[in-house]
Write a structure and sequence with these properties.
281 residues; mainly alpha; 9 helices; 86% helix; 0% strand
Length: 281
């Protein structure tokens, strides 16, 4: 039988261990956020210098190649997913609206939901898995193979030559993908509404244009730019923080996907709260 002193010690150490674990996790999160902020402002500094000084060049070919790899190659999968979501929304919304005799309001709901939320959100989640993970794996492999140290030994800044092109490409690609996702989802909903739900083309378009405003479209575009910034930044930071060889690359890749999805959802929440407070929702 355990002594009272041992029982008392165990009951004290359990809360202490839990507090220590939570404290360490909190410090890790803050340290990660601090690294991300530092990398972000360094990237902004290099972009500003490239715009102001002729001798500072980011590398047009590097940026274009990253846009092709990150954005252009994501168009098909983003279109596929957003089109399927448009079809699902139209089919799911039709029965409840039939109870009120207003099936034609499918267009109103889809227009607002897709332009404000689902278009940029779908594009961001797909881009996270398609491009964010690959950026982390690429940079992480360079860290493991000591290519980053080789760049620094030649007085070449890794932020300038590695992070800036990928971050810029993520922002541009995500903004464009948000628009593409909007168009594909609405087009798919329009097609299923005409062919299956029996909603005339003119009715669908009139209802959607009456409901949707320019601010809804601009909201989605702004979200796309912010989501792209988060994806590119988190992917690059996790890649630069890789340690532990090949296993560390795998861990960093998983962290990128999880952290990007969480950051996107939280950013979307902040957007919605701000727009609600401003009366734009």
């Amino acid at each position: 039988m355990a002594s009272p002193a041992r029982i008392l010690t165990s009951t004290i150490t359990l809360p202490a261990r839990a507090s220590a674990y939570l404290g360490n996790r909190a410090f890790d999160v803050l340290d990660h956020i601090g690294d991300a902020i530092d990398v972000f402002f360094q990237a902004i500094r290099w972009i500003v210098l490239a715009c102001l000084l002729r001798r500072v060049r980011i590398g047009r070919n590097a940026v274009v190649s990253q846009i092709i790899r990150v954005g252009v190659r994501s168009i098909f999968i983003v279109s596929l997913v957003s089109g399927a979501v448009g079809l699902i929304l139209a089919l799911q919304l039709s029965p409840p609206l039939d109870d009120f005799g207003r099936r034609d309001l499918v267009a109103n709901i889809i227009g607002v939901a897709v332009l404000r939320e689902l278009g940029p959100l779908i594009g961001a989640i797909v881009l996270t898995g398609f491009a964010g993970a690959s950026i982390t794996a690429e940079i992480g492999t360079m860290v493991v193979s000591e290519e980053i140290e080789a760049l620094e030994a030649h007085a070449l800044n890794p932020i300038r030559f590695l992070v800036v092109p990928r971050l810029f490409a993520s922002i541009v690609s995500m903004t464009a993908l948000a628009v593409i996702a909007d168009v594909v989802a609405v087009t798919a909903a329009l097609a299923i509404s005409i062919s299956v739900l029996g909603i005339p083309y003119a009715t669908f378009m009139d209802n959607m244009l009456d409901q949707v405003k320019l601010v809804d479209f601009l909201t989605g575009v702004a979200k796309g730019a912010v989501f792209g910034t988060l994806i590119g930044l988190i992917a690059c930071v996790n890649g630069l923080r890789v340690s532990g060889g090949a296993a560390g690359v795998g861990i960093a890749t998983t962290r990128t996907v999880v952290q990007s999805v969480v950051a996107i959802i939280i950013a979307d929440l902040f957007f919605t709260a701000i727009f609600y407070a401003l009366g734009l929702v």
